[in-house]
Amino acid sequence: MTEPQKTARHSWLDDMQGLLFGVTMCAFGLAILTEAGFVTGQTAGLAVLIGYATGWDFGPVFFAINLPFYALALRRMGLRFTLKTFAAVALLSVLTTLLPRMIAFEHLSPAAAAVLFGLVSGAGLLALFRHGASLGGVGIVALYLQDRTGFRAGYAQLLFDIMVFGAALLVMEPAAVGWSLLGAAVLNLVIAVNHRRDRYIAT
C-alpha cells in the first residue's frame, strides 16, 4: 500500500499570485453585484447595504467594518493568516473603487448577474482560503469554526447571509433581494463543495 502523498507548503510567490487572483475575482464579482443593484452576505454584504443606504463608497466602509475582526484572527488563526487577510481586505477596498472606472456593462440580466457573481466570487474566495487568507469578518469566524468543529465554512456564511438579506428587505425591493439570495446560494455552494481539507491541505 502506497503512503499518502505529502502536501507542499505554498511559497511566497504562490501566495502572492493566489491572493491577487482571489481578490481580483472578488472585486469583479462585486462590480457585477453592485451594477445589478443586488446585495450579498458576510461583511461585504453589510458594507454594500451601508453604501446603498448612505451613498458612502464600498471600499472605505468594508475596510473599517473588518477592523474589529483582526483580533480574533490573530488570536485564533495566527499572524500569517492575519497579515494575508489584512492585505486581501485592503486590496479589495482599492480594487472595488478602481474597477467601476475601467469596466461597464451594456446589458446585465438579473439571473446572469446573480449566477456570475456567485461563480466568480466563489472562485476568488476559494483561492484566498487555499492560500491561507480570507476577506475578513464573517469569513474569519467561518474558517475558524470549520477548523475547530468541521462545520463547513460555506454553511456558516450562508446563515449570516440570511440575516443580512433580512436587513436588505428594509432598503431594497423584494425582487432584488431574491436575486441576491440566488447569487449568495451559488457562491456558498461553490465554497461548500470545493473547500475540503481532505482534498486540499497545502497552506
Are there runs of 5+ residues with pLDDT below 50, and where? 1-5
The overall pLDDT, averaged over residues, is 84
Query: How many domains comprise the coordinates?
Result: 1
Helix content: over 70%
Total number of helices = 9
- Summarize the biggest pleated sheet: none
- The termini sit apart by 27 Å
User: What is the subunit organization of this protein?
Assistant: single chain
Radius of gyration: 17 Å
Q: What is the general shape?
A: globular
Quantity of strands, as a count: 0
Give me the strand/helix succession: HHHHHHHHH
Please report which band the strand proportion falls in: under 5%, 5-15%, 15-25%, 25-35%, 35-45% or over 45%: under 5%
What class, by secondary structure content?
A: mainly alpha
Transmembrane segments: 20-40, 46-73, 85-105, 111-129, 150-170, 176-193
Subcellular location: Cell membrane
Membrane topology: Multi-pass membrane protein
Keywords: Cell membrane, Membrane, Transmembrane, Transmembrane helix
